[in-house]
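Need a sequence for this fold. Nothing fancy.
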């Protein structure tokens, strides 16, 4: 039997801003104890959660560290007694093709985007199994399905994350652990504007390329994560949930 929501625990990477911040605030509002994980300070998010009567702690960590899984999951267990929801949302990117991205940059992108998810899940699975189940959620990307110019390292890492989701869903479904990912296109976060500069794609061009003409807000992704972690989503497992306004459906002629 899983723990009641009032005693459930969520750990979220990239929780200092953007989707991670919105997700941390959403889970805290729903009664979870939340461990905020980021390479920068999460003091602002901690203050927001605390002022609303929620319960949260933070750990500052570089997800390229091979010990990140044991450090984060271990801290969740130490502070809150276990872990029920793991959300690996943090990501980085670098510009270039397979010809131009050096090994050191490619490896760092894979370490943060993919290997951190693997290392976190490796530590989380036995704890969730012991607690009767849980939810593991990854932020993948439309780039894991479709070509994005000048972004081979990022795209490859996200494609691998999507297939990791499928593999884990089958391997651990009978443990009561559901694994899903969300595959957004552009989201209105600081990373969007950084990516716009790195990859040379103006934000308005991204908006024009979305069939809905709408770039999702972080709260929309957070709401999807809250649903996927809930009992209402008990039959959703191994899925990549697109949140791209229909960009992944097929070719679309950009319109103003």
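Here you go.
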């Amino acid at each position: 039997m899983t723990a009641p929501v009032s005693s459930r625990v969520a750990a979220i990477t990239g929780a200092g801003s953007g989707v991670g911040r919105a997700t941390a605030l959403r889970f805290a509002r729903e009664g979870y104890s939340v461990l905020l994980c980021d390479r920068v300070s999460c003091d602002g998010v901690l203050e927001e959660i605390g002022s609303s009567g929620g319960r949260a702690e933070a750990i500052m960590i570089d997800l390229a560290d091979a010990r990140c899984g044991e450090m984060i999951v271990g801290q969740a267990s130490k502070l809150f007694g276990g872990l029920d929801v793991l959300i690996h949302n943090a990501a980085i990117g670098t510009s270039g093709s397979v010809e131009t991205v050096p090994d050191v940059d490619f490896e760092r992108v894979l370490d943060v985007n993919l290997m951190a998810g693997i290392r976190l899940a490796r530590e989380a699975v036995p704890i969730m199994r012991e607690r009767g189940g849980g939810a593991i959620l990854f932020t993948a990307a439309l780039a894991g399905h479709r070509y994005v110019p000048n972004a081979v390292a990022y795209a490859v890492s996200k494609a691998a994350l999507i297939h990791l989701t499928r593999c884990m869903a089958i391997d651990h479904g009978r443990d009561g652990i559901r694994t899903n990912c969300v595959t957004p296109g552009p989201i209105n976060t600081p990373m969007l504007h950084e990516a716009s500069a790195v990859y040379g794609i103006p934000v308005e061009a991204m908006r024009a390329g979305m069939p809905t003409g709408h770039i999702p807000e972080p709260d929309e992704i957070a709401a999807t994560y809250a649903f996927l972690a809930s009992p209402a989503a008990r039959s959703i497992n191994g899925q990549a949930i697109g949140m791209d306004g229909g960009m992944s459906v097929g070719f679309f002629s950009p319109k103003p």
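For context: Residues 5-243 form a domain with the Rossmann fold fold (CATH 3.40.50.720).
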